[in-house]
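Consider the tokenized backbone below.
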């Protein structure tokens, strides 16, 4: 190769070849998911922080003892939630109280619950996203396409007017085959 051809190769052709090579390499790594587990580990560390919860955030859960005493949550009168709001706002009002429960239908005690929500103005109620789930059994793997939203389940109308709303994250996906 002449000196001129070597300089043209170094200045013009070599960067193009290197660009194509590294693009193909990045594409292969992405497609093969070689670093998938490593990426998830780093993502978990990034978003989970140091694992110590903030002391100004409280999570109140419905436990087995409560269910044993009061029965299934779906059978409760909603005035219980109104009383809970009164208790939580008794000494100082929290900035936000979020309910990770769906209140889509009218039930007994709704008036008291809605009035408490209006009174304190710090309640967020849940909206549920229902997906059209398509299960594909072709090929080696079963894949689930849940990109199409079928329905948004909002709180019953009076509660929707009295609260802000946020989406709940479904943990389980039921598949009927």
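A designed sequence for it:
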């Amino acid at each position: 190769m002449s000196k001129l051809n070597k300089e043209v190769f170094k200045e013009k052709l070599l960067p193009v070849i290197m660009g194509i090579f590294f693009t193909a390499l990045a594409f292969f790594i992405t497609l093969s998911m070689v670093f998938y587990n490593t990426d998830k580990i780093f993502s978990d560390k990034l978003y989970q922080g140091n694992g110590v919860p903030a002391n100004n955030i409280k999570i109140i859960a419905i436990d087995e003892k409560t269910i044993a005493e009061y029965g299934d949550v779906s059978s409760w009168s909603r005035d219980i939630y109104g009383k809970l709001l009164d208790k939580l706002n008794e000494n100082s009002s929290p900035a936000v109280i979020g309910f990770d429960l769906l209140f889509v239908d009218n039930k007994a005690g709704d008036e008291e619950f809605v009035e408490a929500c209006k009174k304190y103005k710090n309640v967020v109620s849940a909206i549920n996203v229902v997906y059209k789930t398509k299960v594909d059994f072709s090929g080696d793997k079963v894949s689930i396409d849940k990109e199409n939203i079928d329905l948004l389940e909002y709180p019953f109308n009076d509660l929707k007017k009295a609260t802000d709303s946020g989406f709940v994250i479904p943990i389980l996906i039921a598949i009927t085959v």
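Helices lie at 3-32, 36-48, 64-70, 79-88, 110-120, 157-162.
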